[in-house]
Amino acid sequence: MSLPESKDFSYLYSDETKARKPSPLKTCIHLFSDPNIIFLGGGLPLSDYFPWEDLEVNSPMPPFKNGIGAPIEGDNAMQSHITKLQKMHEGDIPLARSLQYGLSQGQPELLNFLRDHTRMIHDMHYADWDVLATAGNTNAWESTLRVFCNRGDVILAEAHSFSSSLAAAQAQGIITFPVPIDADGIIPEKLEAILDNWTEGTPKPKLIYTIPTGQNPTGTSLADERKHEIYRIAQKHDFIIVEDEPYYFLQMEKYVRDKAVRQKQADNAKLQHDEFLASLARTFLSIDTEGRVIRLDSFSKVLAPGTRLGWITASKKLLKPYLSLHEMTIQAPSGFSQSLISGLLNRWGQKGYLDWLLGLRHEYTLKRDNAIDALYDFVPQTKTFTINPPIAGMFFTVNIDAAAHPQFKTVYNSDPAAVEQHLYEEVVKSGVLVVPGAWFITEGDTTPTQPASSKENNAPNEIFFRGTYAAVSPEKLREGLKRLGEMLQKEFSA
Ligand SMILES: Cc1ncc(COP(=O)(O)O)c(C=O)c1O
Fold first, then answer.
1. Stated pTM of the model
2. 75-115 pLDDT tens trace
3. CATH 3.40.640.10 residue ranges in the chain?
4. Radius of gyration (Cα) for the chain, nearest Å?
5. 305 lines ligand 1 (CB under 6 A)
6. pLDDT tens digits, residue range 191-242?
7. Where would you say this protein principally sits, based on its record (predicted)?
8. Whether the CB of 390 sits within 6 Å of ligand 1
9. What b/e readout covers 254-282, taking b as 16+ CB neighbours within 10 angstroms?
């Protein structure tokens, strides 16, 4: 059965996008590789003068049977030789091409790998989708704002969200309106109520920005059933869904406190590829029938942040303005990165890449378990504190009822934010850094404002701290959380 085409959402574009004319120079760049054309049309340096003849790289070899961090030697070593002019492997991008201008959408060998990966991970329901390479999700998000939003436009975001993404929007004069969340992410009923009661005469949100998996900062993951509801609401109120998913492949089993049970589960948990694929959360992309979802993926958390490489998956129609924008901004992601990553992934193959992702899942599960064990060991087990074991990502949070602080009324004037700031100062003094939830609050409102009911907070005295288990050794992590636990114990005992 052939799939339908995506819808046209160009009426949601920003003035900038509508005004952008294609760069005339880009209309002839494809002729650069035409052997019948003597190309005198652009300022392209001759690749003879690129001072790299080849790259020799050593990487680990699938199936990574001793773990993804095992030394790269013996049968765990894979050597790649990427040259200036030749393809040593069919997925290679010769340096003469990757280091040249052109191909703003990304190099074909990399894009083909990503298209096959997309078919394997997502269940696409419209025909004309594609991928476009980016310099990571920071770049992809900034481009998204410019493609869709004007100064004064409104976007929706989780009530606590990644502060850099919020700041990028706010710097462009875009209003970020918070949507309530709980332990399963965005609450669809609240989202619908906000939009059903939207104040007339104020611009309706053009898009929702969400981090569905291993959310930053809360560590929560959006329940699959809720994604269907949110998609329905997006159709009803006609906005775009942007899923920013750098942590998508850091999904794990639920945390189990009993170590014996956990060990048993771990012994049974050597997932086969098909089981792994079936275990992954459903994506907005897989629900999308119209092309109203824009998905941002990144290699930052699964390979390395300094690769500055990611990709957008969306309808071809929606990718067009990104391509035009990128031709005038980043031009293309780094050629070195594209050559190295295409060389690596195409040698690993789709299956080898799944092995890598499975290895990551294993490592992060251990780290998560270690962090949550330590929190249960050291944070006082009272109603004041809630430990939230995540099922994905790099972050854990500890929620605290600020009103339970003995000096809540007397010293802190019944202000939970003042307690949070005080605890932050104390935790740093104790020699560990976790960051206060206040740093991630989504703030913003229209003029005239939205009804008070849209901003209701059911737990006004609740504060939280975010930490990561990604960055330090298990021993350091445990010591850090011991310091956190001791500080909380001291502060909250009367
Ligand atoms: C939600 C979210 N989006 C984007 C980024 C940045 O990703 P990238 O390195 O791909 O720009 C981060 C990194 O911390 C993040 O947490």
1. 0.96
2. 999 999 999 999 999 999 999 999 999 899 999 999 999 99
3. 10-23+104-248+283-333
4. 24
5. yes
6. 999 999 999 999 999 999 999 999 999 999 999 999 999 999 999 999 999 9
7. cytoplasm
8. no
9. ebbeeeeebeeebeeeebeeeebeeebbb
Ligand 1 centroid to residue 297 C-alpha, Å: 9
Does the beta carbon of 467 sit less than 6 angstroms from any atom of ligand 1?
Answer: no
Angle at 48 between CA 42 and CA 50, to 5 degrees: 85
pLDDT of residue 267 exceeding 80, the answer is no
Ligand 1 nearest atom to the CA of residue 161, by list position: 1
Q: Which CATH number fits domain 379-492: 3.90.1150.10, 3.40.120.10, 3.40.190.10, 3.40.50.2000?
A: 3.90.1150.10
Q: Cβ distance 106 to 132 under 8 Å?
A: yes
Q: Which atom of ligand 1 is nearest to the CA of 162?
A: 1
Contact in structure between 63 and 348 (CB atoms under 8 Å): no
User: What pLDDT, on a 0 to 100 scale, did the predictor assign at position 366?
Assistant: 93
CATH 3.90.1150.10 boundaries in the chain: 379-492
Q: What is the CATH number of domain 10-23+104-248+283-333?
A: 3.40.640.10
Whether the CB of 215 sits within 6 Å of ligand 1: no
Give the per-residue pLDDT at 469.
Answer: 95
CA distance 376 to 371: 9
Largest CA distance in the chain: 84
Instruction: Name the residue with the closest Cα to ligand 1, atom 4.
Output: 137
